[in-house]
Amino acid sequence: MSEEKDILVVAHSSEWKPYSYIPGNGQPKGLLIDFWQAYAKYNHESIQFMLLDWADSLSYMKEGGNRVHAGLLKSPEREAYLDYVAPIFNTNGSLYVQNQAGQVSKDPLAADKVVGVVAGSYESWFLAEHYPNVKQRRFRRNETLFSAALDGEISALVADSQTANFYFLTQGKPLAFVADQVLYTRPIYAAVPKGNQALLNEIRAGIDNIPSQELLRIKQKWINTERVEAYPTWLIPSVALTVLLGAVTYIFILKRMVYKRTVALRQANSRLREFANTDPLTQLLNRRGLDAYFSRQKPKLSRQQEMGLILIDLDHFKQVNDTYGHMQGDKVLVHLASYLKRLVKKGAAARLGGEEFCVLCPTPNLDALIEIANHIRCDVADSVFEFDGAEIRVTVSIGAIIASDVTDDMDALELDALIHAADVLMYRAKHRGRNQVMLASSQSVKTPISAM
Asked: Does the pTM exceed 0.85?
């Protein structure tokens, strides 16, 4: 493929689902594909994708030129020939082990254990660095790695969590392997050939031009993957065989086996549903989990027991990430989430994305909701987050709304309408100077708790 000066070549893997891959129609798809298409759109730049086997994508970057790696994790080996531009998205690397009747193998990372990885991947480097006695079986691409796992050739593998979920779910075997432990959480960086400072600056400025709402849309499109439940294919034939044989003793033994495995399956499905409804960073509900909570509470609403919604957004949070790094910024988000868990006794707290949080709770009137919202605002403003000797202070802007401010028909009330109304109020709080609570009456609350 030619590499003209005005065309930016974006290199990545052809089989790193859901980040980048080539489906049957030959058109690249994935989270990073959408990200770089957004980059091209908002910077009016022409790009072309070079999707290869993972190791080949790294070799391609070593050749230099007007090219960028779509996204990868940092490692000392890669820093020898790459300059990293900016973190794009976070990813988790997890150890997956074969699920055997609800039991998992012991000590999968013990010496002489065999673990599958993709050759040239960060996972391969991580195992060699932290678990040098583990034997690695290296595969050229993700497709062959997961095929070997599902065919029983390997009983353990290390892979990106979203990639593993994608492969197991799309193959219809979500319970074949389970995540034994999360080994690391790291940001994915864009990178350019070593020493190309002009391209480094260009990519950095171009990424800043992509609206945060577009980044959130892309992430939610690919990361919020639906979970499915699967039951063993042998269950019905086994029961039929038991009835056919008619042996009371054998039936008793089989029933005990079915019971134990059903309990294990229910527990596994329960963990999957919880994972699907939970934000992985803060362990609060995500948007899907908030929808489920709202659906359960809606039949209980009345004029005497309304539903209140508090939308919370951290002020100038990008400055925290830029100054202290995304890892420290994530710690601030986790601390805020922990505070909301302690505060909300009746109701639910959720992270909608980025630095935006939501509290959904039953309330008798607006005054009770205002008290909760202002407690949050004041407590956050008075908090000091200390990380590695640095003191970080943040404030929040809040939009607070009750159901009757949106509609008089409680049966027709929708969560989207509540969130939209609170979002409008929250942005009014931003425009009026931040660190305040904005109500539907256009009243701004900035009073300290002690003075209320």
From this structure: no
